[in-house]
Each structure stands twice: as C-alpha cells, then as structure tokens.
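Record type: ASSEMBLY
Status: queued
Input:
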Amino acid sequence: WGKSSTGTIHSCQPFMDSANQCHGSFGAAMASCTSHTDRIEMRSLHKTVLLVLVASVVLVLAVLHSWPTRAYSTVDVRQRPGTGVERLLAERLPEPDPSAGTIPYRVRESVAGLLAHNGCVCEGERAGVNLPFAQLLFPRVSAHPLHTAFQPSQLDEMKRRRAKEYQGFQMRSQTPADLLIVTEANSPLQYPTQGVEVRPLKTILIPGLALKDLPRDIYTLNFSASLGTFNMAAEVEGVKVRGDGEMHMTLSSCVLPNLNRQLQFITYTNTLFHPSTADTVQLETEGHQALFTIKIRHGVTPRLYNTGGDADKEYNISTLVTIATKTFLRYNKLQDLIDSIRRYYPTVTIVIADDSENPKMVSGPYIEHYVMPFGKGWFAGRNLAVSQVTTKYVLWVDDDFIFTANTKLEKLVEVLEKTTLDLVGGAVREATGYTATYRQTISIEAGEEEGDCLHMRRGFHHAIDGFPNCVVTDGVINFFLARTDKVQQVGFDPRLARVAHMGNENPVDWLTQDDEVFKEQYLPLLGWVQDSSFLLSECEGVLLQKFALSCQLPLRTHCTVGTPINSYLIHQQVFLQASIQ
Amino acid sequence: WGKSSTGTIHSCQPFMDSANQCHGSFGAAMASCTSHTDRIEMRSLHKTVLLVLVASVVLVLAVLHSWPTRAYSTVDVRQRPGTGVERLLAERLPEPDPSAGTIPYRVRESVAGLLAHNGCVCEGERAGVNLPFAQLLFPRVSAHPLHTAFQPSQLDEMKRRRAKEYQGFQMRSQTPADLLIVTEANSPLQYPTQGVEVRPLKTILIPGLALKDLPRDIYTLNFSASLGTFNMAAEVEGVKVRGDGEMHMTLSSCVLPNLNRQLQFITYTNTLFHPSTADTVQLETEGHQALFTIKIRHGVTPRLYNTGGDADKEYNISTLVTIATKTFLRYNKLQDLIDSIRRYYPTVTIVIADDSENPKMVSGPYIEHYVMPFGKGWFAGRNLAVSQVTTKYVLWVDDDFIFTANTKLEKLVEVLEKTTLDLVGGAVREATGYTATYRQTISIEAGEEEGDCLHMRRGFHHAIDGFPNCVVTDGVINFFLARTDKVQQVGFDPRLARVAHMGNENPVDWLTQDDEVFKEQYLPLLGWVQDSSFLLSECEGVLLQKFALSCQLPLRTHCTVGTPINSYLIHQQVFLQASIQ
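Status: finished
Output:
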C-alpha cells in the first residue's frame, strides 16, 4: 500500500466488478421552485374559529419568521490589499534555470524599444513662426501639462487623494482571472487552462480533468479552492473520496482508468457569492501541482432592440434611430435643423437637451425637449440626451447642422448592421464647401504612478473589407451613428464642461488662435476625470502631459463613411474645460 | 544533424563562445512622440520670396498628403458566424480515453440535480383562499407568462427578430478568451496559461516560456498567431530564427539551454487593431502542441472622484454625495423632501428629474431641476437623474420621502468607503411606524432558446464582517447609496415605463390587490428588454416565465443597513409596465 502525498495510508481495495449500470439521466432533475417557508393547506372551517386560528397562526409564524431558516455564512468584503491567491501564484512561477542566466545575449533595439518602459515623457515643440496656415503646413507637436490646473500648494494633497482613490479602485477591480499562471512542463496532470465558468452559487462539471501518470501503486489527486466546493455527480467503483462537498477534496485509487473515469464527474459549486470574480483551483498529485481558474460571474444579458420592419426591405429609420442633440442659446439654428430633418425623416424621434438661460418651448411631433439648469455644459447635455434614447441606434448631431438630400442615414445604419463596429462617423460639409471627416488615433503610453501619456495623431488603423472609404479609427467627427447600449454604457462625463465656440468661423483665425485658446481654457485635471467622449472627437490633436487625462476606449471603434479628406483640426468646436469640483 | 519538425534540415553549428556582453538596457528607449509628417525648419527669408515659397510648398505638401504615408492593411469586421479559432480549439480538446467509457458509474442525484439542464419551467401555484394577510401567512409562488404581451399572430415574427438580434449580439461579444482550452499532460512545453495581456498595437515579452525536453539532436519550437506577430527583444547565440516579425516564427537550436535563454526574450506585437479581443497562440514542438491566449485590450481607466475633506475627519457629504430623485405631480411632497434634507444637509446637491404635466419651477441653492416631456416614466427619469451626477456617490430617494435626524448618510457612505460593495440600501419607515428594509435574492436558471427563468426570493446571501445588520443581497429598497460610476454604467432602461402608486397606503389592501394588479398591469416583454433596475427593488417576488425578463446584474451587491426586519412585499411602490416600442 502506497503512502499518498497527504500523509495518510489509503488501503487499496480490489476493484469490485458489478453490474452497476448508469441510471437516471443528468438532465432529468428539475430545479425546485418552492420558497423556503413551509406552506399550510387550508381546509374549510367555521368563520369565528377560523379567525381565532388565523390570529394564533399569525403569532406563531411571526415568531418563526424571526428565526433564520438557515445558517448564513459571513463574508469579508472590506477593502484589503493583497490576497492569498496572488502570493500563491507568485510562489508558483517557475524559477528560471540558474545556468541560463549566464548565457549572453545581444539586445535587438528595434524590438526592445517597443516594450513599455513605464516612464513616458511628453514634451511639445517650441512654436515656430506664427503664419497663416502654419499649423497646416508644419504641424507641431503640442503638449499640455495638466498638473498646472492646481496651485503648487494644493498639488501634493491632490496627488495623495488621487492615490487613495486609485488604490480603492484597484482593490475593487482586480480579479484572480488576470493573474499570471505558468503551466508546469512534463506534468502528468491534464486540466482546463481556460474557459471554465460558473454562475454565482451554481454548480458545473469541471471539463478536461485527467491523470496520465506512470504506473504506481496508488494514485492520489487533491483539489483545493477558496470560493466554492468540490463534489462528484457520479461515483465510480474503486475510487476513494474524502472531502466531497468541501473546499478540499482528495481522490485516490489503485486503478488509473477508474480514477480518470471518476475525474469526468467532478463538480465545482460556488458557495461565496460574488457577481464577478474567479476562484483559483489547485490540483496536486505526487510531485506535481497545477493551478487553473474558474470564473464566477453572471451571464451577460443582452439589450436587444425591436428593429421593426422586414429584414428584406429597407431599414425602418424611425424604429431604428433616434436623433440626439444639445442646444444652447440658438433656437433659430435648432429650428433649421429640425425642419431639415423633417424633410427627409418625418417621423424619426429627436431628443433635445437644452441648457439655455431662458429656455423656450420646442415642440412638434416626435420631438422630446429636455430642459436643464442653465449652462450645465455639453458633456452633461450629451449624457442626458443619450440617457433617454429607446431605439437601437442613436445619431448625434450638433444643433447647427442641416440635413440635406445627401444625409442618408440608411448608409450609416448599414455599416452598423453589417459589421461588429459600435460607432460610425459621417462627414460634415462646411458652408465654405469644405467637407471634413475626422480621424484620430489615440494611444496610451504607460507612465509611472504620476500617470500615463496620451498620444493623439491624425490617422487610422485599417481600411475595412466591403466598405470602401471606411476606415477603423479611434476618434471621429461629432456627427455619428452609434449603438445605443454601448454609448449609454460608456457615457459622457458630466464633470467636464465645455467652452462654447469662439464665434469666429474663419478657419485661419481659428488656427492662429488655437494655441492661445488652449493654454487659457484647458485646465487640466489630475487624473480625476476620464473623458469617455474622447472617442467622439472631443480631444484635440495634442500630446497630453503625464499627469492626467487618460481615456476610456471600450467601444469597438468606428469608421468614417464619406470622402476620406484629411481634417486639419479646423473643426475645433470643442475646447476642453476640465475643472475640479 | 537532425531533421526538425518543419521538414527542413537545420545544420547544427557549434556554440560560439564569445565575450558578448549584454549592452544597453531595455528601459532606456523612449517612445518617439513625433508625428508622421516631416517638419521643415523655418529660417528668416524675405517676405515676398517667403510668400511664393509658402505657396509652392503648400502645393507640394497637398500633393504629398494625398499619398498614404504607409500601407494600411484591411480588416474584415463584418458579422460572420464561427472563426478558425473555435474550430481549432474544438479539434484540440483531448479525446476521452475510449476504454474509460466502459467503466460504469452511479449517479449522485443530490449533486447531478444542481447541474444546469437548460430546460427550466416556471409555474406558479394556484391561488388559495383570498384572506387578509393571505400572502403574508402563506406566500405563494407566482409566475408571470411574459409571452402573453404579444398577440399570438405577432409572436412568431417577434421571436424571429429577437433571434436575429441575439445572434448579432453574440457575434460582437464572443471572445477567444472564453473558449475551453485543456492542457496536454506530459508535454515538454512550459508556457503561460493565464495573465498575458497586451495593449492594442503594442508589444510585450511573453513570460514563462521554456522547453523541458528529453535530449535530442535538435530542438525546434514553432509559434503561430493570427492577430499579431512574434519577434525577439534580444538574440542568443546558437539559436536559429525564421519568421521573426511575422505571425509564424520558428526557433531551432542544438543546445537546449540556449534555446531556453532565447525563449526569455520572445515578444508578441498586436498588429490587427481591436479594443477588446484575444489572440490564441499556438506553440508546437516535436510531437507536442499547446495553446494559450494573449488578451488584447485597452487598460481600464478608472473614474476617480475628488472626495474633498481630510481623510481623518468626518466624511464631507456635500462633496461625496448627490441626492437624486424623480418627481411627478406632487410638488408639495417634493418640497417637504427638500426642506427635510436641508435641515441636516444644507449644501448637498439635489438633482430632480420631473416629468409632470405642467411643470412648476423648483429652485434653491444646490438644486438642479430637469424638466422632461410629460409622463416619460420612472426609468427614464432615473436614468436622466443619475446621468447628471458629478460626485463619487449618488443617493436615490423617492419624492415622498422625508429625512429625519436618523437619516445619517455618513453611515451609508462608510459602508461603501470601507468595503468593495457598489451599493447599500437603507431602511424606510412608513407613517404607520412600520420600518422596512427589502432583501431579494435573484437567481437565473438557464432555459432553452426561448429564454431563461428568473427566480426571486426574499432573503440574502451572506452577513458582512464588520457591519452587523448588514447583509449581501441582490435587491434592496429604493432608498440607497451607490457608486456613481457603477450606476451610470448599468443605468436604467428608459424603455420601461412605470405605473404610479395605487394611492392606497393600507398594507392589507395592497396585499389583496396584489395579484390582480399584477395581472392587469404587468405586460411582459419578449426578451427585448432587460430591467437593469432589478437590482434596485423594481421586480416583485415572483417567478417569471421562461420568455423573458432577464436582468443585468453587474454590480457588486449591496447590503441593507438598519434593522433587519423582513419585508413582506408591502412596499410595492413599483409595478412594472413594460411595453414594446
């Protein structure tokens, strides 16, 4: 009899041949839908007796109800740094071969230079001669030192607070499913390294488990978890189990095929509730260990929208699209916009967020007018408008746009219906006749704890199969169609306020004013705020200093439909004014 | 000289002893911040000559700009079912040992019954005698057949549309990072099975790679990916490389320590842009294969809020909390609420969403009043209100609540400051003196393609360490404090409308009316809508039919602070009226 790795001696019983047939089927059992409280069946009784009985029963039940029907376990959800799992995994990373450390190597700079070095520096270039078209001809790299938003005396306090908030965020968002696990070579253990998932408090079969060991007297397998328990959906002869229904379970057998058969029926049950986490399972057999992760999370329930109409016919724009806009102090332009929309789309819903000083009434069929406190700003307005959209897609327009016969929303809808993109930008033609699209690529370079560097450049990532004139990029012009659920999920941060147009439509004047305007009005934020609207052409083509503005870029990026004319940052309708509240 | 697995013959050169020292450091290189366009440095010139030059330069640059500066690759983002990766993984799942299939087993019903069987059935119980306190004493299981929202003639069309939308959703949301991978036992390959991540279009070192093979004449390792390329950050003598910089790379060497040393410098560069996906890397050596995943995604940028005040002193409620509410046709109650808040929190911001028919002005310091189109509903109103919050936490109240000296927001803030929970519900005391909290557990049972079953029961999951009277649950009463970023991320679906209070405050009458009211006013939805407000005590304690309402439960759940009196569904202020748009 062999000694197992747990230190006890398992006697090895001969395999019992029996006529054990598999009975029942796994799918037959139905989950019980009864509630925990016992039910009492009523029979007919005399009324007064009934009332007396009812009164006493109420009393009794009241007492019973206050007693817990089962023992509840306690969880510790306090914010605490570090857990046993990270330590465990760190200990288990394989040591590099000590002899290998002496073997010399020659650095390949072209590749090594691409690796993140966590020390980005963003510096702009000095301004050259201030000529007309200067920015056009000689695009300079500008950088914005965001820490200058704070008085030097405040700076340390702000950094301290930010570090504390960031730490809390990390504790809430870290999951064992992201930790590094390296598999052991030449291990007899076969197990799933990815793809095992269980709904909170539910049970699953663990797939892919097997032991492919050399011949031994006895085979032992230990299971260990911390957020759930192990068990067996079926029992196999010749396999001894200890700890079934617990967080630590041991299987042992003398007959390897039987142990492997048993391994096909191992279950995991999540017992500590959490809507989105992972349990790290430790497997152990003689001389070998393995770790793998079981994800514990709710299923994703999709937001599905009724698209109306027949799939084979043309798109039903009124059912599919809501037009959203924000207006401020220019009702005449807004009315022009509405009139132009109605010429082509008489029944499409238009949602208007209005933060004007003395709001006028804006009404009409399929018009929804929302009045905000005065001057709340563009970001708050956009967040409000999209929060009210009930169609599959939302089309963003500015209140000074005009629809023309060329404004074919069906084309934009087709892109999103036929691809996996979340958002598609259009093209905006100025009164001058100049038509602009707008493509920005955004990349984030890791910095140290002061923050990261955000790089924005004109350009795009890829062209798109099947859609000529359409490219994948990160930033588009503020005329776009997007999936409503995605935009609502990312949103626009109402903490950011926007400085209105300068009122000067001359592109040349805009260009020369550009740098001055930025320095005056761009009050940087020390990492407090992310501009999730970044994606949607808020940010200018500048390099931002390490201190702060990183952007949330969760949307599958978008393409611009229309003539791919490069935009020269002429349409700077947005100056970012960020402020600390 | 050995023949490698690729079929070619690699000559085996003797290891060249050299004094190759490691030079340079990986961290030294700094990312270039220059833009793609060449810059021309201006020197002083005569003005007219300058203008002529400028004109010609403009012309030349215009021509140059229209030539792409680099070749762009094309991506296929069209919705297409199935990819090569799934097929690859399916083929690679290990075959169960054929002999094992003959070994009999005995089903353990208690465990097998817990496994999902994808065939849930939700049926209610017949109503008993309709007595006072009937629901109190004898809680029945109710079920709601949601498909009855549609005329039978419409039903098939609705199901077809829903299936199409769901399919699109699946295509957009599936990722290779969720597919099942089972590691091969007794493989000489050592590799990372979890935790390898790269930012889009960036480069990383792949950790944990090694080959622990038996002695051979020649060792070969093949790398294969589909969304990026492999390379080496450093070169080691005695290792031959083919395909560096490409999606398929081969390393070979006669000296195993040198190959393993080289494996410490293997890099992966993502070349096909996608903001959130994964690449499945295939590793291959003589007779063995392995698969692992590299996640490709943007880093998560946290939304951090300025908490104001000193960490050691008391919480600064005005900086931390915004009170949000929705009002409809009862300005007197709203004013009572505001007055009561001001007695204890004179400077906390109050956000009011108002969809009354003839809106009155509501004003005052720190009051933000938003006017909506008449009757948009509670969900739209709540989504609007939270979309405007700029503080770390948002406190939801109903417009007929009153603050008292016992309404200590600091207690609620403390729970969220000290734990990883996202939301904490309070207790609401009725005019009768009855104080209710509200705890609902929600569990989803997988159904077939018709939909899942949603089970709601009174109760909770766990008690909480350090917070007596506080439990972890899924649904709370509609008086709660929550993290603003989380609530904004989940939101409230404006497609759901709410029927107002019956106006009858007598608990007994509510109870007897309950079932009737539900049947009349609960118009189910065929899977079009998810009630993300579920979490926030919208849904009643009912069992819902398979067809439809599944809930989004992404928030880390919450605890109720206050006296743990079980609520008997008396506070049914919400009747869910769902309608198809």
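Annotation: Chain B is about 20% helix and 20% strand.
Annotation: Chain B touches chain A through 207 residues (CB under 8 Å).
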